[in-house]
Every structure is written in C-alpha cells, then in structure tokens.
Amino acid sequence: LVIDAPIQSVWDALADWEKQGDWMLATKVWVTSTIKDGVGTKISAFTGIKSIGILDTMEVTSWVPPFVCDVLHTGRVIKGEGKFELHEIDSSHTRFDWSEEVIAPRPLFLLISPGLYIGVRISLGRFARSFR
C-alpha cells in the first residue's frame, strides 16, 4: 500500500496501538503491558461484533522505528508472526507492507479467510485515507 505521507507520520500512526481500532474494521486494540512501544510491548486486539469474535494477543519482538515492527501472535487460537514494514518512496510517500504468517485451525481459517481478506482491504483503505 502506498500512503501519501512521510514515513515518520505513517510509523507514528501504526505504533499508536490503541488508535488502530480507528481504522481496523470491527477491531478494538489495547496495550496490556507497562511498556507502550518497543520490544516486549504486549497488545491485545479483539475483532468482532459485541462479544462474538476473536481475541488476538501479541508481543512485539522487533522494533526498528520508523521501518519495522514484528510481532509474535501468542493467543490460544491464533499463533504465528506479523510484520509492519515501511519503505520511504520520497519525502511525502511511504510504502506500507503488512504481512502475517498465522497458524490457526484449518476449519477456522477456511471459515474466516474470505471475511478476513475483505476486512484487511477495507482497513488498509481506511488507514491510507486517514492521511488525507
């Protein structure tokens, strides 16, 4: 995703964990550790409607501002690794790469994957528009 904003602005928005719910569809995010950024930060994200959804717990394992943040998914249902990676195109454009390697029960993955794909696409569009 190419975002019309400087790399530091994009990083600051991504690293504001509790505001990620402003652009992530049907998701509430909160920090569960005493540290708020950097390696060791623990985050929870609930995606769903009311009490029906999935809780995703994570811990930051790599932190290289304003370029890379890696997380380890530590939940009972969702496990794996995620990465936010930013690349400066020029002083006012940033490429945002978001990758996930999620280990989840196959039936659950097959059930949620179409909605997950659509939700991520909508969320990324909302994130990019937040810089306009």
Description:
- This protein is of the alpha+beta class.
- Helix content is 24%, strand content 44%.
- It is built from 2 helices and 7 strands, in the order E-H-E-E-E-E-E-E-H.
- The chain has helices spanning 7-14, 106-129; strands spanning 2-3, 27-31, 42-49, 52-64, 68-74, 79-90, 93-103.
- Strands 1-7-6-5-4-3-2 form a 7-stranded antiparallel beta sheet, covered by helices on one side.
- The longest helix is centred in the C-terminal third of the chain and has 24 residues, at 106-129.
- The radius of gyration is 15 Å and the shape is globular.
- The protein starts with a strand and ends with a helix.
Structural topology:
Blueprint: E1 2-3, H1 7-14, E2 27-31, E3 42-49, E4 52-64, E5 68-74, E6 79-90, E7 93-103, H2 106-129
Antiparallel strand pairs: 1-7, 2-3, 3-4, 4-5, 5-6, 6-7
Low-confidence spans = none
- Quickly count the helices: 2
β-sheet strand percentage: 35-45%
What is the first-to-last residue Cα distance? 15 Å
Structural class: alpha+beta
What is the mean predicted local confidence, pLDDT?
94
Give the strand tally. 7
What percent of the residues sit in helical stretches (DSSP H or I)?
A: 10-25%
| Spatial strand arrangement across the major sheet | 1-7-6-5-4-3-2
Helix and strand element order: EHEEEEEEH
Query: What sort of overall outline do the alpha carbons produce when their principal axes are compared?
Result: globular
